[in-house]
Amino acid sequence: MNLKPKAFIEARHQGVILDVRSPKEFEQGHMTSALNLPLFSNEERAIVGTCYKEEGREAAVKVGLKIIGPRMATLVEQAEELCGENTIYIYCWRGGMRSGSMAWLLQMAGKKVVLLEGGYKAYRSYLSEEICAKGELIVLGGYTGSGKTKVLHEIVEQGGQILDLEKLANHPGSSFGNLLNAPQPENEQFINSIGEAFLKLDMNKPIWVEDESRMIGNVWLPEDFYARLSHTPLLAIDKSIDERARFLSKDYGMLPKDQLKLGFDNISRRLGGLRVQEAHDAIDGGDLVTAAKIALQYYDKAYEHGIGKRKGPIASRIEMSGKTHKEIANYLLKNQEKWTSSKISN
């Protein structure tokens, strides 16, 4: 049985998903919860691909059969180990020879198999064109240290819904975020995760999302979604520089001094050598608030530059100095309807 992406995604939880592409393809990006049972290794795929280009489809098929023929029984055993008696949902890149061959083999072994029509490529197109374009976004902005991410988490606690891009990217979104050394996903997988996150959201309710630059650490937002984000009216929360510096000193204060200094070295070209040295001295003296204020000289300018490049208007600036993240989230949720883009455009 073949299913189009929408039906395949809706049904996949009823069984086990097998990605039969090569390990390298799988590592770059795959469907959520899929397991990798490659028909070809990375090297074998390259051999078959080269044959296809140089000698044509028939020759490539023969080469492929010679490779997998001796291990067909092993592939069935591996599938049984991974899937048991569950329905097996299979895909390859385009829903062609690899997934078709594996489906035939497993069906011959008595397994119930469902194929993804159009393969992984169709899945990604579906997420990008039909899922990530939906829903009513409210884009939350504010200077560095405003606690936007924590406000978003409070919004969830109070019954709202968010798209947490920094969590999906596994990166706090600043030069100092690099110091945490957290491994980031491959960019292809990051984009898949955005689409999968949208699938879990209620499209009849506003979706809160933090204003982000195109790059979050080493991964970047897909072009279409970034364009949508930058055209959506911005709701900016304002807090005093003293509050923001105190927040940053607590948020990054657990890092070793050498790492904090490295964070300043990373922005030295824009901040200037003298200010970087002053930050180093403040860190050595345990005055992280002063160091944070120095960092904000760079980040505030960067934020203003980013605001200037946005295509959408600033819908509202809300003074929130002295308010907790919980209080800010409560206020935002109570008033969220007036900040949806449809209301603003009217």
Structure description:
The chain is of the alpha/beta class and 346 residues long. The protein has helices spanning 5-11, 23-28, 42-55, 57-68, 72-83, 97-108, 119-131, 148-157, 165-169, 187-199, 223-231, 241-251, 257-266, 268-271, 273-284, 288-309, 325-334, 341-345; strands at residues 2-3, 15-19, 35-36, 87-91, 113-116, 136-141, 162-163, 206-210, 215-216, 219-220, 234-238, 314-319. The protein has 18 helices and twelve strands. The protein folds into two domains: 2-128, Oxidized Rhodanese, domain 1, CATH 3.40.250.10; 132-345, Rossmann fold. Helix 15 (273-284) crosses helix 16. The two termini are 47 Å apart. Strand 9 (215-216) and strand 10 (219-220) form a beta hairpin.
Strand order of the largest sheet: 1-5-4-2-3
Q: How much is the average pLDDT?
A: 90
Taking the alpha carbons of the first and last residues, their distance comes to: 47 Å
Helix content: 40-55%
CATH architecture of the largest domain: 3-Layer(aba) Sandwich
Shape: elongated
